[in-house]
Amino acid sequence: MPLPEDQEKETPRAKRQHIRRTEADARRWADKFREGKSMLRIAQEDGTDPKLVSDWLRRLGITTKQGSHRVSQPTLSLGAEVVELAMMGTAKVEALIRERVWGVSASGIGLSQLDKFCKFVVMHSEGKGVEETAGVLGVHRSTILGWRSGEDLPYLMKVAVVAKSKHLEPGWKILPIHLGSGGNTQSDWVEVPESIRVFDDLARVVAQLPFLQEAKELADGFGIKTLDEIRLDLVGYLLAMMSGDSSKSGGIQERFASMGLDLQLSLKRNSNERLGKYVCMCANTIGIKMKRISDKQPTGDSKYSQTPTGAYRWVSERSPLLAWMFSVCMGLGWEERTSYDPLKMDWIFSAPFSFRLRFVQGLADSDAGVKPSEVVVTSVPNAEFVTKLLLSLGMTSAHTIIEGGVPLRTMVNRREASHLPIFNEHVKGYRYDALVKEGIRPSKYGI
What we know:
The chain is an alpha+beta fold. The chain is built from 20 helices and 10 strands. The chain has 5 domains: 12-59, no CATH class; 80-165, no CATH class; 172-206, no CATH class; 210-342, Endonuclease I-creI; 352-447, Homing endonucleases (Endonuclease I-creI), CATH 3.10.28.10. It has a 4-stranded antiparallel sheet, covered by helices on one side. Strands 7-8-10-9 form a 4-stranded antiparallel sheet. Strand 1 (172-180) and strand 2 (185-193) form a beta hairpin.
């Protein structure tokens, strides 16, 4: 006897409801979903309800949408080291950077961008597309496309890649000499100690630094033929100028601690132009760009004096290396000023004679005066330190002038000063001329 027409054939829905599904079925569906099949296709092939497939996949922690499937995404144009770092997660990447990089500033914005980038790499590995990833992370799709092509990576990720590639000794970190785009790009990385214990620590740093061609061109103007040999000593001269005439701008910035030099010398003295060039040469020998700009017009009291006088002016690039020299080599905090806060440079007494001499010359060329019988170095707040340095150079007449209980100046016998010489023999500034005008010629002792 034939069945009634409505019972003659079971509907697909009625048929598939007769089968009880288990977790084993769900895991099989999950494998198919990961292979790229949609939930509708999986349900059709297995004779079950798409909603049941979706429910089971969600129980297994797989995010789905009706008709969705895992899409095979284009290969990331990122190095394996970038992907490896991103998969570590933001916290571990940040810890790596702080452990190995000197002066880096992990700003809130920077960390947020790093976190989004790390999540992007994870989502890409899960097959998430551009639109979905951009929506979840709250960024424009162009940002995702840029990251996927390896362009415009977060600055902290760029830093982390370099940091991970370095094998550092305890107490040493890395920093970039040059920054671009506000710190978004970095170049010429070098290893530096977190503190200087002995002179050799500084020597190791200088040995890594690049020469700029401008240094050799300037050296020719001073008749210097052995720039390579005196390069390390010139760092001593530059440090002294940083503690004297050259003002410093910078400190902790949004992405990196960095600093620039601004050297202003009175137009009253023609020899100051040579002094400025010499300081530029010193900076150029360690890879720091520094050049002369337009003269500064008279300001303040000078503007209203009987003979208003402007100033020669030279400025350097802002560099983490200069910030490191200020903080580590000179021992000063970001809020401290060389006019009020003493240098902390005990390591300099382990330096060779020639280095200590160049440092003293930098101080003298910046802040010394020639009297009939003595040379006076105005060295507040470092008078005792300067006196100790001169004594270490054999200047037995060096002594500190104390007024009101405060060490203000260092004095040294004029003849001793001329034989050192206390003023730089390459610059031959007006102070140098004043020292030798009576026929007392400086020797090359210790040079």
